[in-house]
Design goal:
Chain B: Its main location: cytoplasm. The complex is a heterodimer of chains A (265) and B (266). Chain A has 265 residues and is of the alpha+beta class. Chain A has five helices and 14 strands. In chain A, the strands form two sheets. In chain A, strands 1, 4, 5, 6, 7, 8, 9 and 10 form an eight-stranded antiparallel beta sheet that branches. In chain A, strands 2, 3, 11, 12, 13 and 14 form a six-stranded antiparallel beta sheet that branches. In chain A, helix 3 packs antiparallel against helix 4. The longest helix of chain A has 20 residues. Chain B is of the alpha+beta class. Chain B is built from seven helices and ten strands. The longest helix of chain B has 27 residues. Classes of the chains: A alpha+beta (265), B alpha+beta (266). At the A-B interface, helix 1 of A face strand 3, helix 3 and helix 4 of B.
Chain lengths: 265, 266
């Protein structure tokens, strides 16, 4: 081994890619994708929901992929779109969280000044907009959930829920949905939502929406996860579980073929 | 210092005729004059402890000039000597940890982290244009793969060893003698070894035993641990735990002194 001051021991590899030339084209459409993420604020925090399917085009390829992820002790993200980009974004956020912890002014967690959900969301907005402006987008719609910070840096009681899409558009709301869910689930959630919902109610609403998405979205699955961030700053992500489904609705059973329609279901 | 090195001490790239590299020895001297740093491997974790001299009365000491740093989720280092040199090593250690995680997708094992730090420190002893680091580094780390924790120390020469108790800085010799008396030798068997709670008290006692109020500068005690209780994360020892350890240590020392006095009277 030659003498070198480079970090990485003897296993140093070139992780950086070659500089793009004027003719370089980037991936601008996804390959392996996750579908909708749903999110809702409730009485004591924020709930996220997503299924665990990752598709390769129209093929259901990975059926146990987790798309709801804690990225520090009190912030959750949920991602739809290109799964490898989601992994890369997660790694980036975790790396930032670790660096924050290492370079904090104090050795004590309570003084660590960890990024709050709103800061993470704002940062992601910058990342996503920057990437799309280079015509090299991260192909994800990301939901960020957690709590806002007070002026003095402590975590407040005010829940935060925000979304950043693949072109860097960012907005906050009490209820959010990405992908097909923004067409199918969002209207249903708007109808049922109340700011003071109990966890059970909110969870039931999300499960109903996921079930409906499973019926109507060809790229959805009934194997799902639900995650929550609560007022005491804890992130909990459930293990994947399967929703009960009911396929005996008349419209599901009777083919419309021969009924004078176009023959579809 | 012309006599001590007699011309062979100007560069670390030249040996003296009797086979020494004076620049490295001088760097080690720089560490020997700095605040004491202690590390102890216990049954359920590792404790790091540094005596940080307060060089100025108006110093904001809690957040500046820290001697113990977190390098990765499962590793921390304590430095003593030239603090600015030490900080350089800390920065490098963080880079190495991050680089390993990026490349292999797992936390850097303690031996690898230590050997990477060693290589870096050693590099500075090889060139005429460079000055060796005037700092020693105590590395406390946990390997989530093997579920084992270990303590290493890297010296200004770039040499590193694994220890179950180690010390650097001004009081290192007497501290070593004191630490040898503690139940930390792995040969004693798992159950016999002391735990981190006890180690915090014992380390505080060692620091205060070595401290001479009339001679030494006032200091602040910095302590961190990496243990079962902290989920094997490197964290500061809670301030109230340090405070009660110090209180206990002072009382112990006082009692020991009284006994000595009594014996003398007899």
């Amino acid at each position: 081994m030659s003498l070198s001051l480079q970090a990485g021991g003897s296993a140093t590899r070139a992780l950086s890619s070659t500089a793009p030339s004027a003719t370089t084209s980037h991936t601008t459409s996804p390959i392996t994708t996750g579908t909708s993420v749903l999110a809702i604020k409730y009485r004591s925090g924020v709930l996220l929901a997503a299924d665990t399917l990752v598709s390769y085009g129209s093929m259901a390829k990975y059926k146990n992929a987790r798309r709801l992820l804690p990225i520090n002790s009190s912030t959750l993200i949920g991602g739809s779109g290109e799964y490898s980009d989601l992994q890369s974004v997660t790694e980036l956020l975790k790396r930032n969280a670790l660096e924050d912890r290492c370079t904090a002014d104090s050795l004590y967690n309570e003084e660590s000044n960890e990024e709050c959900a709103k800061e993470v969301w704002s940062y992601l907005r910058a990342v996503m907009y920057n990437r799309r402006s280079k015509m090299n987008p991260l192909w994800n719609d990301l939901v960020v959930a957690g709590f806002k910070k007070n002026e003095d840096g402590t975590i407040s009681d005010e829940p935060f829920l925000g979304l950043v899409d693949k072109i860097g558009t960012a907005y906050e709301d009490d209820i959010l949905a990405t992908g097909f869910g923004s067409y199918i689930a969002l209207p249903l959630m708007r109808e049922k939502y109340r700011p003071d919902m109990e966890e059970g109610e909110a969870r039931a609403l999300l499960e109903d929406c996921l079930r409906i998405l499973f019926y109507r979205d060809c790229r959805a699955l009934n194997r799902v996860q639900i995650a929550k961030v609560t007022r005491d700053g804890k992130c909990l992500v459930s293990e994947p579980y399967e929703l009960d489904t009911y396929w005996d609705f008349k419209g599901f059973v009777n083919s419309k073929a021969g009924l004078g329609t176009d023959g579809g279901w | 210092m012309a006599s001590s090195g007699s011309g062979y001490d100007l560069s670390s790239s030249t040996f003296s005729p009797d086979g020494r590299i004076f620049q490295i020895e001088y760097a080690s001297k720089a560490v020997e004059n700095a605040g004491t740093a202690l590390g102890l491997r216990c049954r359920d974790g590792i404790v790091l402890c540094v005596e940080k001299p307060l060089v100025h009365k108006m110093l904001v000491s809690e957040t500046t000039g820290r001697r113990i740093h977190t390098v990765d989720s499962h590793s921390g280092v304590a430095i003593t000597g030239f603090v600015s040199d030490g900080r350089q090593i800390v920065g490098r250690a963080r880079d190495e940890a991050a680089n390993y995680l990026e490349t292999y997708g797992t936390t850097i094992p303690p031996e690898v982290l230590t050997s990477r730090i060693s290589s870096y420190v050693h590099y500075f002893t090889l060139h005429g244009a460079l000055r060796p680091f005037g700092a020693s580094t105590l590395v406390a780390a946990y390997d989530p793969g093997t579920k084992e924790h270990s303590l290493h120390m890297v010296e200004p020469s770039g040499v590193s060893y694994e220890y179950y108790g180690c010390s650097a800085g001004r009081g290192r010799q007497s501290a070593r003698t004191e630490m040898e008396k503690l139940a930390i030798n792995p040969k004693q068997g798992e159950g016999e070894l002391i735990d981190v709670q006890e180690a915090v008290k014992q380390l505080a006692k060692i620091i205060y035993t070595l401290y001479d109020e009339s001679k030494d500068k006032p200091f602040e005690l910095e302590m961190s641990w990496l243990c079962e209780g902290s989920g094997w994360r490197h964290e500061g020892v809670p301030k109230d735990v340090i405070a009660s350890a110090v209180e206990w240590a002072k009382k112990e020392i006082e009692e020991a002194e009284e006994e000595d006095d009594d014996e003398m009277e007899e």
